[in-house]
Every structure is written in structure tokens, then in C-alpha cells.
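Task: complex structure prediction.
Instruction: return C-alpha cells for all chains below.
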Amino acid sequence: MFVKQLLRGAVKHAGSSPQFSVERLISAARGFSSSSQHFGGTHPPPCTDTEHPKVLITGGLGQLGVGLAKLLRRRFGKNNVILSDIRKPPNHVYNNGPFIFSDILDSKNLREIVVNNNISWLIHYSAVLSAVGENNVALAKEVNITGLHNILDIATDHGLRVFVPSTIGAFGPSSPRDPTPELCVQRPRTIYGVSKVHAELMGEYYHHRYGLDFRCLRYPGIISANSNPGGGTTDYAVQIFHTAVKTGCFECNLRSDTLLPMMYIDDCLRATLEFMEAPADSLLSRTYNISAMSFTPHDLVQEMQKVLPELKVTYNVDPVLQAIADGWPMVLEDIAARRDWGWKHEFDLSELVQTMLTHITTSSQRAQAN
Ligand SMILES: NC(=O)C1=CN([C@@H]2O[C@H](COP(=O)(O)OP(=O)(O)OC[C@H]3O[C@@H](n4cnc5c(N)ncnc54)[C@H](O)[C@@H]3O)[C@@H](O)[C@H]2O)C=CC1
Ligand SMILES: CC(=O)[C@H](N)C(=O)O
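Output:
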């Protein structure tokens, strides 16, 4: 029902904005119908040589892992990318390529998987995110710190290239917030942030001490249409799209003026692949900020209302999440990533909103038709 209104709004809006054409909506929808995640127009061609990395992704059933597996499989071949997690995968994931159970706290099992599958790249996505971490500090310590130690030791012992994402949450209230440079004070006040600073420092230490090929990007809040966020402070910016399309209203748990760095998932996953493929001698650092846009809930709602003029948003601030967000960067500076390995984002706020709404509307129409 609201989907129809949304399409009507989109068409109406198309008349007023040259950037938002019906053709674009339709062509984006076509792209989505042939692939569940769309990666912009610039994804690299599949590798043809036999020197593919053999990749293991830990924590692969969260918001980011399935999309990354899809991108890497397109590049390196389906069987060269193994997705793993401690949860049971849905059928479409299970049927789309190798999946294996792996608990990062079980170091012997993890080592066996690496050895038996001749793994050469380890993408370490398992983590407990900011909001869940504040509710369960013991679990966050275990997964984010003990788990990371297992990963670094195994990666070092077997000569792997290892990617560990960090986050805007690795900064805190005493960091410069607008903009936040690569190198500055990092005194986060969440267990998530503390564990990510620990990961950055441990990885860099292993790189200098043992020659580990450690690579780390500080991601902003990631926005995706067909995977759900796992319990973070930036989750509102994903949930708002789904709820708005379904019901036409949304209750936001952050203040309307909370400015945070955000990124569309396609940019995030492409950045990860490009960074992993960057020649080691181009990397002057092992930990980089990457950035695309910053917006407040108010900015996002205004952009969405260009398509959904009836959208109603109310604010019911969660004090714990608001305190976390108030200590995070407002704008992330990523000069070094752009300079050293050519990072360039593709999605700004208007592209993000168009793409998310098109994607969610199309999926919802398809579900209604079935
Ligand atoms: N999604 C975002 O906005 C951002 C994510 N990141 C980082 O990117 C990585 C991936 O993030 P998401 O996919 O959003 O996280 P998520 O919370 O959606 O997924 C994490 C996954 O880790 C798995 N996991 C938990 N304990 C485990 C264990 N003991 N062994 C193996 N797997 C375990 C969970 O089952 C879950 O599927 C994380 O390291 C996160 O910190 C960084 C910044 C932003
Ligand atoms: C920005 C992140 O790391 C994550 N989305 C969170 O909000 O915890």
C-alpha cells in the first residue's frame, strides 16, 4: 500500500529533480532484480589468472559479510571465498557458495580451517557492535579482544593477509570531531571502541614486529538495503528506510541534529576489496579512515521526504546511544586513503536515498506479488 504511494512520490519527484528520473529508478530496479546487492558500475573484472587468494570471512552472516562474499566471489571465483559464522545460514546463502561453521574463540578449529582450505586472505568480520557491547561487556571483550588475538596469531603463523575493520567508534569525545583525522587522540568510552583501538594497535604491532600483512579500515556507519544491522548506534539510518516504506512513519532514537559519518554498503565493500588488493608498498599506513558523507537524522528525513512527502518522523532519544553518538566523529577525514591507494566514494546522500528506496520498494513489491 505505502509502496504504491512511494512509487507515486518517486515519479512526482522525478519531475522536479533531474537527478531522480523514473528511468533511473527502473534501471536500478532491474539491476537489483538480477543481483541482490548492487555494487555500482565500477566493480573490477573477474580475475583470470590462477593466483587467486583463498579467502575466509569470519562473522560472515552479519550486515556486511554476505555482500562482501558476493563481491569477492565475482572477482576470485565462487569456491575461493568461504563464508563462516556461528549461526545457521539462510538457504540462499548456503546455496550460493562455501559456508562453514567457525567460532573465532575456538582457535584450534580456526587453525584447522585455515590449513585445510589453504587460506591466504582472512577477512575478520566477527564482532559485537557498539549498542550490543554496552549491554554485554563480557561478551564484547571475549569476541572483540580474545577473538582478535586468535585471528592475529593464526594469520601470523600462516603468513596470511588479514583485514580487520575498525570504526568511527574507535574515536571518543576527546578526539577532534569535525573533521577527525587519521592520527589523533583516541579515547573511546565504549567497550566496542576500546576493543577496536586495541585491534588497530595490535595489528600494527604484529605488522612491525612479525611482518604480518595487517590491513585495517575505519568504516563509518554502513547503510544497506538487504541485510540488517547487528546492534549499533548508527542502525537508525538503516531501519528508517524499511519502516518508512512499510508504514510511512518512523521513531528515531537519536536527536535530529546528530551528525555522523555514513556510507552506502557498495562503497564500503568496494573499498575493502580495493584496499586488500593495493600493493603493500603503496600503504604508508596500515590503518586508514574512509569516508563518503555525513548527515543528521534531520538531513536524511528531508532527503527521503523528496520521495515520500508524507513521511512522519518522531524522536524518542535513547540516552545511552545518544551519549555514544555525541562522542563519535561528525566528519571523518580520509585524505591518506585517497592519496595512497586511490579511495573514492561513489554514493552521496541523494544517491544513497534513491538507491535504498528503489531497492526496498522493489523487494517489497516482489514479496507482495508472491
Ligand atoms: N555495520 C557497520 O555499520 C560497521 C561495521 N564495522 C565492522 O565491520 C564488521 C562487520 O560488521 P557487521 O557485519 O555490521 O556486524 P554484525 O554485528 O552484523 O555481524 C557480526 C557477526 O559476527 C558473528 N559472531 C559473533 N560472535 C562470533 C564468534 N564467536 N565467532 C564467529 N562469529 C561470531 C555474529 O554471528 C554476526 O553474524 C565488524 O567488525 C564491525 O565492527 C565497522 C564500522 C561500521
Ligand atoms: C559505526 C559502527 O561501528 C556500527 N555501525 C555501530 O554503530 O556500532
